[in-house]
Amino acid sequence: xxxxxxxxxxxxxxxxxxxxxxxxxxxxxxxxxxxxxxxxxxxxxxxxxxxxxxxxxxxxxxxxxxxxxxxxxxxxxxxxxxx
Length: 83
Hints:
Layout: H1 3-9, H2 16-24, E1 28-30, E2 46-51, E3 54-60, H3 70-74, E4 77-80
Antiparallel strand pairs: 1-2, 2-3, 3-4
């Protein structure tokens, strides 16, 4: 699944374009690296989100299937402790 689509489907961003902008600006990393929005992402990958003053790393446990609620999307990722 495309990285920007995954971020949107997991409800980490309100729109796919916001997700793509975050990826391009380096605020959303895939496995610790800056990648293009079209990069494939899947189960086991780590997403790092950086906003001013906070950094959050998530592990993808399962891929979303279609549109889902924010609560259901939370079950598809696991917060990792800061390293």
